[in-house]
Amino acid sequence: MSQADFWILSIPSNGGANSDLQDDLDYSLVAGSTKLAQTIGPFNVPLFKVESLDVLINQNEQLAKQDTQFSAALSKITEVIKSLVSPASEELKDYFLVDGKTPLEYITSFQWNASRFRISNSITDILQSLTSEVLTLENDVRTRQSNFQQASNAYQSVQKKKSGNLSQKSLASIVRKEDVLVDSDYMKNVFVAVPLNAEKKFLSSYETLANLVIPRSAQKLSQDGEYALYTIIVFKKSAEEFISKLREQRYVVRDFAFESGLRESEQNEFDDAAEKEKHVRSSLLRYAKIAFSEIFQHWVHLKCLSVYAESVLRYGLPPDFSSVVFQPIEKAEKKIKVILNQRYSYLEQNTSRNSKTSDDMNANLDESMAGLNLHEEYLPYVLFSIPTKSFNY
């Protein structure tokens, strides 16, 4: 089992209560000379329907598969939120609340939501409901993220027109009406961005690059840290030759035709793109916040189902087990495992089948359990993790 922020432990209660197990762990892990865990509390698991052993084994396998899917969905949504909110922002933690609580508060005060997920339904039906809702939330976040990416790309494209150097940016905000020839039948303006280190060479040679270049027509319109922008007047029939010669000299010819109102039109385009990007970003963040809260709740409900299913498979029917949730102190996980293995070693020899369980059921359960790998590593007790560290709240 991977390192986790929270562990859920289930053992046979033999008629006892969750509080007895909680007291036992407090003594073993908290009250000793070295504190190994904190935030130990009950993890209340309702009594669900057990249709048959074969069905429960299959349900347990499906629960494990969906656990991975739910965890992956939370990771994706976490990445979305963190990509949009600065790590230094005090608001970041607000996007990772679960039903208005921190993940810590929600897990340690967990109660099954019977109004949304009726325990009178089968485990299969409850799992389908959980899975369907998580899939819908995940798909909706993905759709909104795609919309945001499109809006962001459009905004960046428009932004380049305003923020690039003179070889790239739009000339609409630079070229004025008085800088150009208007409605000339024979002559036209050619706009060229000249590297600053080639400016002297350009000024001394542009008139001879082609025929019919108007002498001394070069007019400097703007300059930035890399380029100077010039307009030159040429006869239209020699314009293509002139442009070709400019490119041979590695000058950047700018394809631009002055239009009245173009500057205002591009500014409106920029403002609209910026507003849309802001709106779609805000919508994505709001929904991602809701989706995180909902999927986290569904994930813990799924953990509850898993604790029940595996505890019944491990300890038998009728269900008689206690479960608690606790938070291992960092780097104390191995020590806790040693203590738990020693404290509950008796479960390895005795799966603690309740004496009220029928002999036939126990026999079938023992036979089925022989080939069932309930954990990546075998433990004599039921232990699940809620690895909130992987989400880096």
UniProtKB/TrEMBL annotation:
One of its GO terms (cellular component) is vacuolar proton-transporting V-type ATPase, V1 domain. InterPro entries: ATPase_V1-cplx_csu, Vac_ATP_synth_c_sf. Transmembrane segments: none annotated. Keywords: Hydrogen ion transport, Ion transport, Transport. GO terms for molecular function: proton-transporting ATPase activity, rotational mechanism. Gene3D superfamilies: 3.30.70.100, subunit c (vma5p) of the yeast v-atpase, domain 2 (1.20.1460.10), Vacuolar atp synthase subunit c, domain 1 (3.30.70.1180). The keyword Transport applies. Subunit of the V1 complex of vacuolar(H+)-ATPase (V-ATPase), a multisubunit enzyme composed of a peripheral complex (V1) that hydrolyzes ATP and a membrane integral complex (V0) that translocates protons. V-ATPase is responsible for acidifying and maintaining the pH of intracellular compartments and in some cell types, is targeted to the plasma membrane, where it is responsible for acidifying the extracellular environment. Subunit C is necessary for the assembly of the catalytic sector of the enzyme and is likely to have a specific function in its catalytic activity. Subunit of the V1 complex of vacuolar(H+)-ATPase (V-ATPase), a multisubunit enzyme composed of a peripheral complex (V1) that hydrolyzes ATP and a membrane integral complex (V0) that translocates protons. V-ATPase is responsible for acidifying and maintaining the pH of intracellular compartments. Subunit C is necessary for the assembly of the catalytic sector of the enzyme and is likely to have a specific function in its catalytic activity. Reversibly leaves the enzyme after glucose depletion, causing the catalytic subcomplex V1 to detach from the V0 section. Belongs to the V-ATPase C subunit family. V-ATPase is a heteromultimeric enzyme composed of a peripheral catalytic V1 complex (components A to H) attached to an integral membrane V0 proton pore complex. This is V-type proton ATPase subunit C. It comes from Schizosaccharomyces osmophilus.
